[in-house]
Every structure is written in C-alpha cells, then in structure tokens.
Amino acid sequence: MRPEKMNNWIERNIEYTLVDAESQFSIDFAGMKFSPAELDALQPKFERAAREMGRIEAGEIKNPDEKRKVTHFSDRKVYPQSELFASVEAFAEQVRSGKITGETGRKFEAVVVNGIGGSALGPQLMQFAINGPYWNEKTDAARNGYLKLYFLDNTDSAEFADLSEVMDPETTLHLVISKSGGTQETKNNMIAMEELYAARKLSFPKHAAAITMKGSELDRHARGSNWLAVFEMAESIGGRTSETSIVGHVPAALTGVKFGRFLEGACRMDEWTRTADPRKNPAMMLAAMWYIAGEGKGNRNMVIVPYSDRLILLSRYMQQLVMESLGKELDLDGRVVHQGLNVFGNKGGTDAHAFIQQLNDGRDDFFATFIEVLKDAEKLPITDSTDMGTYLHGFLEGLSAALRGKGRQIITIRVPQVSELELGMLIALYERAVAIYAEFININAFHQPGVQSYKLAAKGVLALREKVMAKLAELGGITGTAIEIAEKAGCPDDAVEVGALLDKAAVNCPAVSRKFCEKSNQWVYTVK
Ligand SMILES: O=P(O)(O)OC[C@H]1O[C@](O)(CO)[C@@H](O)[C@@H]1O
C-alpha cells in the first residue's frame, strides 16, 4: 500500500471505530464502502429511527398488525427487580439443590428445552457460548449441581429418538417454551414425551415446566395438569427478541449461566445505542452500513464470521433475528416491497476452508462481519514465537487484508472475551440495529405474516393426506400411479401432492408399497 493510502486507511479506522472503553467492546466500520456524504444523506432516516425508537421505549404500539407494544428493550432494565425474576431464581435454586426433584425423588440432572425458533435459538446460543460444547461432571456448573441442557427444536422423530437414547426420564426436567402456546412442532414433542413417560409409568407433569403467554393452550394444559411451574411470557416480547426475557432466563438459571450479568451487557448496549449522534451510535451506524451496502434493498448478504468456536451459533441466531424481522412483502403503507437481508455464516478460521474462496474471488454480493475474541482460552505454543491464538488472529487479519485488497466490505467487532456480558451486548446491538433498519425501509419488524401462511399451507397438506387415506381405506386395496390414485381419491388436481404423501407412506406404513416403472418414469403404488 502507498503511504498516503495507508494514512487514509489508518485515519478511517480511527474515525469510524466506536469503542466502549469500560467493556472494551469495539466496532469498526472503516472496511465498509461509504462516504461522509452518504451518511449525511441518511440524516432524515436517522431522525425518524431515533423518534420511533423513543416511541418503542415509551411503550407505544409499534407492531400495528398485531396491535402490540414492543417491550424487549425497556423490560430488560426492570426485569431483575421483578417478582418473576425472583421466582425463576428460586425455582432454579430448588432444582439445583435437589429440593424440587422428579417423581421418584432423584435429583434432576438434565433439562430438555422443547421450543422452536425464538423459543430455542437464544438458549442454544447462550449455552454453547458460555458452557461450551462438552458437558461433563468435571465442569464447574455440573459440580455445583446445575443441569445439563438438551434441546428438542423440530418435529423430527430422529431428534426425539437421539434424545431418548441418552435421557434418563427420572432425572430429566422438561421445559416447554412457546410464546403462543400452540406451535405444532413444540406440541408434537410434548405429546411424544408425555407418551414416553406414560409408557415408563412415570408422571410427566412431575417433570415438566412451561414458559408461555397467559391463557395460551400450553398455559391451560400445564396448569390443568399441575406441572411443576408455569412462567408467564409477556405478549409484547416477540420470540426472536426474547433471549433477554424469561425465555433466556430459565434455561440460564438452571444451567449456571449468570443471567444478571447478561442483562447488564444488554442494558449497557441499550445505553450506548441511545446515543443521539448517529455517527457515535453503533446501532445507527450498523443499520446505516446495511442500508448503504445493500442500497436499501438488501442487495448484499450479511456474512457473520465470529473467530470463536463458542460463537458458532451466532449466525443461526442472527438469521432469525434479521430475516424474520426484515424479510417482508409489504411496507407500512401497504406497498409491495419484498424487503429482506440474507444472513449466513459459521465460524472464522474454519470458514477459510469453506466459503471464503467465493468471498475472495467470486460474487461481490456481501459484506462480512468479523467478530474477534481477543482473550485466548489458553496459551498453546506452536513455535517459540507463536501460539494457537496468534494463528487465529493472523488468519483473521490476513483474510481481512485479502478481502479489502479485492474491494470487499468488512465490519469488525472486537470483544475481550465471550462471557455473559459480551453476549448481552452483541444481542442488544443487533436487536436495535434491526429495529432501526426497519425504520429506514419503512417496514414492521415485529410481525411474521409469511410464517403464518406456511403454517396454513402445511395444515392443508395434512388435511389432504387424511382425505386421501380415508378414501383409499374405503376403496379397500388399489394399485396405480399417483395420477391414477389421486383420480380415484377424488382429487385429480392434487396428483403431485398425493404422490409425495404416498412416497412417505410407502417407507413408513406396512400397508403401502411402491415400485418404480422405468418406462413411464413414475412410481406405481400399492395400497392394501
Ligand atoms: O414461541 P412460539 O409461539 O412457539 O413460536 C416459535 C417461533 O415461531 C415463530 O412464530 C415463527 O417462526 C417465531 O417467530 C417464533 O420464535
């Protein structure tokens, strides 16, 4: 690099790196392509976002479709002083100390979180980040009586079977998390688990607790069956922004994660991201970078690359937070806009041997966000002058320089370590940046109508299956292609869907089989 260019780069780094000195959290925007004039042009959007963030925090309705307030920013400040917080701590302590046990009196050793989307991703991220991937009796948390954490976050019999193999029902607590209390995947796992307990002649309610909205189907079910505990979830906190609420708290308290410290981190970031000057406000700047890079239309993908194995789940977490919030068909004025921002990622170092080839040489359709964790867990010498950590740092800086050399765009976040505080800061930063960006592009970040339509479509498929199966049972034995069977079942226009359900049935139901006909390139099904 020529000296004058180098000077520009250094100056740009100084000007566009924001630092919170006390926590040592920094975010560097110098590697993004933007000019002061482009930031100036965003002034009206900054003003609108600041005004609307004020309205959110003042408790006004900010989710117009669902007519709901949006309280995750404001609630977490007062949550530690609430009765709910105290009751979670008391419950977790009784479980940890063995005062609350399972039906047979044995101490709980594990907890299964059964939830999906926002009711699982935050607890998963937090567990992996703080307690790490390997739980055994030698870890501090285990020695102190905290519980090992498992997840059920789909409706996949393989996931359930894998868990059943390692789980001891007598010493396992089941925490069913569902804000709406009616999400089918979660309900399916709950029903399957209730069956498993009944088959072992154990009481499921004596091993179960729930987090849900008051009056939901799950709330009624759990209270009606006398579960160990039911914790209320606020209507005004959306699933994807619920990690700083009861949803994050209960799993954390049961597994020895310092949730109070996590909230401190989130509140610290909330303070910082209320800074009036947008150029000094990390969330305003982050949203501005996304906006300028993607021309306000999400034309660049957000690639999240933490250089830390403990943060491997961050990109999955961000995927829901960003894409479920910003991926919208209509704007607030009802215009079709098809907005969104793609998020993908994994972990740095390892990624160099996966998608970095394309980022370096291929399509220039992204901006990378690197997250460096400065403190090494251990000093592991490799040569006289290097160790494991210096290599990871070298790979990050090397990749950064290579990408910059190709004109690719980069944001770099640096944190001293991964503890509860930094995790709280990271999550709160992205939550606010998402809410601000939504104001920039005039959309509602707090609803998810697209997910509803997929759920309805799935219900339609299940209804079709019932109809076809009932008809086939009535016909009492039939052989034919999907087209022929759909015809006989009275739904000729649904032959593709009928074929798909017969494929599934042929592998799972003894009464259905199939043979492939090379000549017609179709399966021929026999239903007994
Ligand atoms: O907590 P619930 O109501 O079970 O919902 C789970 C997830 O499903 C969604 O509603 C749709 O994906 C998410 O917003 C939410 O986090």
TrEMBL record:
GO terms of molecular function: carbohydrate derivative binding; glucose-6-phosphate isomerase activity; monosaccharide binding
Keyword Cytoplasm: yes
Enzyme Commission no: 5.3.1.9
SUPFAM superfamilies reported for this sequence: SIS domain
Residue positions of the active site: E324, H353, K455
Pathway this chain belongs to: Carbohydrate biosynthesis; gluconeogenesis; Carbohydrate degradation; glycolysis; D-glyceraldehyde 3-phosphate and glycerone phosphate from D-glucose: step 2/4
Reaction catalysed by this enzyme: alpha-D-glucose 6-phosphate = beta-D-fructose 6-phosphate
Entry-linked CDD domains: SIS_PGI_1, SIS_PGI_2
Subcellular location: Cytoplasm
Enzyme class: isomerase
Keyword list, A-Z: Cytoplasm, Gluconeogenesis, Glycolysis, Isomerase
GO biological process assignments: gluconeogenesis; glucose 6-phosphate metabolic process; glycolytic process
Any single GO CC term annotated in Swiss-Prot or TrEMBL for this entry: cytosol
Principal cellular location given in the protein's record: cytoplasm
Family: Belongs to the GPI family.
Known role: Catalyzes the reversible isomerization of glucose-6-phosphate to fructose-6-phosphate.
Protein name (Swiss-Prot/TrEMBL): Glucose-6-phosphate isomerase
